[in-house]
Amino acid sequence: MNVADLLIAALKNPSPAARVEILRILALVEEPQALPALRTLAGSETDPDVLNTLRWAGDLIARAARNGYNTEAAMSAYFRFDQKPAESQQKEAELLQRMQHQLDMDMIQMRNQASTRRTLGRGLMFGALGLVTASPAIQSTLAGDVANSDAPLDTGTHPIVPQRPTDSNIGAWIKQLRTGDPKTRRQAATELLGFNNPAALPHLGYCFALATEEPVRMEAQRVGKLLYFNWFYWAPKGAESALE
Question: CA-to-CA distance for 213 and 182, rounded, in angstroms?
Answer without folding.
Answer: 7
